[in-house]
Amino acid sequence: MAGIGIKLNNIFEKNTLTTHLAGFAYSSMSTVTPMLVVILNILLMGYFLGFDQLGFVERELFSCSVLYIFIFALLTAAPFNSVLSKYMSDVIYEERYEDIRPCFFFGLFLNISLSSLLGIPFCLWEHFVGKVDVFYTFTGYCGYIGLVLVFYSMIYLSISKDYTKISLFFLIGMLWAFLFSLFLRFIMGWGIRESMLFALMTGFFLTAFLELAIIKRYFVKNSNRYQSVLRYFGKYWKLVVANFFYILGLYIHNFVFWNTDMKLVVVKTFVCNQPYDMATCLAMFTNISTTIIFISRVEMHFHDKYKAYSESVIGGKGADIDSAKKEMFRQLSAELMNLVRIQFIITSVVYLLAVVFLPRFGISSLTMRIYPCLVAGYFILFLMYSEIIFLYYFNDLTGAMVTSLIFCLVTFLGSIVATHLPELWYGSGVVAGAFCGWTFAYFRLRFMERNLDAHIFCVGSLLKPGMGTQPPAKVYSKAEQAAAEIQTAK
């Protein structure tokens, strides 16, 4: 993540109010802009195309289609993102740039294959059971595949430190989608729902093609070494588990509430829970600044301490290594505490504004009763993810995997219990899961602090492992040595 840090340091070094605002805007653009651009585009399309004129079923069909596209595109990309990011980082460090293209195409094949296998049966069910027309069903499926391509290509641009290009490509794709939706609706005479979904689908594909073009421009050579990529999935399977269960944990509480009496079934296919899903979205946006603050501060402060420790391990004295380690963990603790303090203030202010103003914009009272508990849950959840990132820094894959498993499992069980509680406590499953995950990750980091020397210096083997006959266990015999010396003397 060192790419943002240099730019942020240049912005913040003047230490003025203007530069702080500029730094916040830059870090925001580099992290959450893509999501905000997509949401803004959907709102604008709905406003100018007259989405409110549609009937209830048509509106909910479009909303559920977009919701499912995003959720399951993220879930199917989750098993591949972390391992491919690890492979890319190692390849770039070793300057084997010709191995990046095989990584891209092999990972793309795996991701698209999994996404298609999950998407096709659902679309068949949507058409034959839900009686949704073929054109709309196929458009939704293409939009799902297009977003899978977008999320997948974002891995490579993120590793290449091209965060601003990601935001730019999303902006171009969504601008095209907005203009194209107007063309389809008012020039071609298409329906409102079809115009919005088809235009959004083409916007996703345009974004994916732009990302693919820049990746092919960056990485020209192709070594055709595909087996090394596959071996990484076996070697770093814990990364697959950790990332998948973290993403699953973000939505598993929604899945639980989709099966309660509050659920809404659309065309016998899509299932949702409007009040709970809306409260979840609001809670996430209330705490989304955690991502911005964390990336900004880690890039500007912790990364330098981590780099200094790594350099001391390579060629420093023991005293230098101990000193660098203490500085690094002191900075880590400071960043976590600062993140908690700053985000608590932001969350409190945003929560107050939401409670005051959102009911005036038609947000239901049920949603606002569910919202407070979910705000607390997402506050802890994003702090937990910050600790997972720190565990990745120290290559503690076991700690990251167990943290994600605890978070997902406790959230699932807690949400089942929460369905029997009053509405105010519906989000308690997320609170319990995030808190348990955060607690484990915290003590795991403390464990790493106490045992970092063993973790760094005692992992690996002095002898290259291989297949063959096992050598004898006895390596030295005093009697045999004495007999050999006597024989030599004769």
Supply the key terms.
two-stranded antiparallel ribbon; mainly alpha; 490 residues
Mean pLDDT: 83
Measured by DSSP, the beta-strand proportion falls in: under 5%
Structural class: mainly alpha
- Computed over alpha carbons, the radius of gyration is 26 Å
Question: Explain this structure to me?
Answer:
It is a single chain. With 490 residues, this protein is mainly alpha-helical. The chain folds into 2 domains: 204 residues, no CATH class; 222 residues, no CATH class. The protein contains 17 helices and 2 strands. Strands 1-2 form a two-stranded antiparallel sheet. Strand 1 and strand 2 form a beta hairpin. The longest helix is centred in the last third of the chain and has 40 residues. The radius of gyration is 26 Å and the shape is globular.
Brief write-up:
This protein has helices at 2-12, 17-31, 33-49, 56-93, 100-128, 134-159, 163-187, 192-218, 227-235, 237-257, 274-287, 289-315, 318-357, 365-393, 397-418, 428-457, 478-489; strands at 264-266, 270-272.
List the helices and strands and how they pair.
Blueprint: H1 2-12, H2 17-31, H3 33-49, H4 56-93, H5 100-128, H6 134-159, H7 163-187, H8 192-218, H9 227-235, H10 237-257, E1 264-266, E2 270-272, H11 274-287, H12 289-315, H13 318-357, H14 365-393, H15 397-418, H16 428-457, H17 478-489
Antiparallel strand pairs: 1-2
Helix pairs in contact: 1-2, 1-12, 2-12, 3-7, 4-5, 4-6, 4-10, 5-6, 6-8, 7-8, 10-15, 11-14, 12-13, 12-14, 13-14, 14-15, 14-16, 15-16
